[in-house]
Amino acid sequence: MPEGQEPLLSVTGLTKLFGSFKACDGIDLTIGHGEIHALLGENGAGKSTLVKMLFGILAPSAGEISWLGGETAIPNPAAARRLGIGMVFQHFSLFEALTVAENIALSLDEKISIADLSKKAAELSVAYGLPLDPDAHVADLSVGERQRIEIVRALLQNPKLIILDEPTSVLTPQEADKLFETLFKLKAEGRSVLYISHRLEEVQRICDRATVLRHGRVTGACDPRQQTPASLARMMVGAEVAGVEKVEPPADGEIQLQVTGLSVTPRTPFAMPLKNVSMTVRAGEVLAIAGVAGNGQSELFDALSGEYPVRDADAIRLRGRSVGRLGINERRLLGAGFVPEERHGHAAVPAMSLSENLFLSRNASDRSAYLSGGKLGLIRHSRVQQAARRISEMMDVRKSGEDPAAGSLSGGNLQKFIVGRELDRQPSVLVVNQPTWGVDAGAASRIRQALVDLAKSGSAVIVISQDLDEIFEVATSIAAISEGRLSDAYPAATMTRERIGILMGGVHGQDTAPSTVAESAHAH
Prior knowledge:
This protein is of the alpha/beta class. It has helices at about 45-55, 75-85, 100-105, 115-125, 145-155, 175-190, 200-205, 230-235, 295-305, 330-335, 355-360, 365-370, 375-395, 410-425, 440-455, 470-475, 495-505; strands at about 10-20, 20-30, 35-40, 60-65, 70, 85-90, 160-165, 190-195, 210-215, 215-220, 255-265, 275-280, 285-290, 315-320, 320, 335-340, 430-435, 460-465, 475-480, 485, 490. Pfam families: ABC_tran (PF00005).
């Protein structure tokens, strides 16, 4: 920031209380013109609470916010937008029944026809490499495509400051590169970005300054370009972040999940059909499935979990049983566990407590006893609450109360609870879709180690992920999905990023088969 120039935004002593709990405790922060400023911290450090105050969603309990040198109040998001503040949320604020254009229109203060808005949004999305169909219904879109809506919607508001909360967590590397180009353009125009991310390599690459929060307080500031990912992680958590101790590939583990010739027609016009998918996963194995968003990952998860049973019962075999036509509860009773990619509304009900969410994931007999009342119902209720506490302790879930609503937890802490909820059952087969989306380095390490430990205990684990670092960290074997087709699985030790990229691009067969372990040395 040039000497003598007023900062774009500054906050002094900003505090937010929830009862006696201080989510933000006397935060000081300054953002200059034309700067990309990182906001770092563990899940639950206070980052989301801070930016919600800056965007008018929460009212500060104490402290001041100044905009262009003058103290201001931001009572609601409309007031924030009028000042010139835009925001992209980590959890989507979209109406699934509406189209892309209709969702964008709801956030704009200016009056513009849907036809004109559709044209403008389509042009902007193509220009920034985040293509969208303005007429598509949100319910039919992948998580990655929904994130594009949020980004385009914010850019359409032409903000002076844009707050991005984990914007690349569901983007491909190519999409992220396009976003970064956009951010550099905004910076060159004198606009500023407050950038929240747990991908520390991104922070090093694009951010000019970084402010670190821990337990609601500012604990440091730095030039991230002068740091390493390890040193940034250490600043965030206050200690070294442990690596993951990988499981050795199983020699001859028993087959736990077998998929043969699975084909699924799309349920909606925008869904991806599955085409002749086959895989075999043995006890002790972690099969990681890589892929670009929207290539059939969600459809594959739905088919494996039984959320949408398939026509051919024999296409999916779980521990030797044909389960293609069975639903999710019946598959759970056979020893399977499932973690979908979307935490809010799919993996958990935000308004319900952690114990109630745990109860919902148990089998029908447990739920019946719980609801029946009387002595047995009280025993079941007590056991569910005990299990919720046990899971929270096991996964280091940080929360503001004994049994809070799921929606009150930060994204990473809720993710730790959801993963722990499935691990608590010690499933023979666990299918996880995007296990560490929006999770800080410490929490991601804990989740990945828990998945590896489950495999070490003799379970089969299937991890669907867009994060290649994560894939190399946990996998014993790797496959890729492209346009609904799944490649062969190869030993992780023989794979490189280049080979995975080829598979993700849809090139399967002999040309992509790794030939020597030595070739994989460059993967790490």
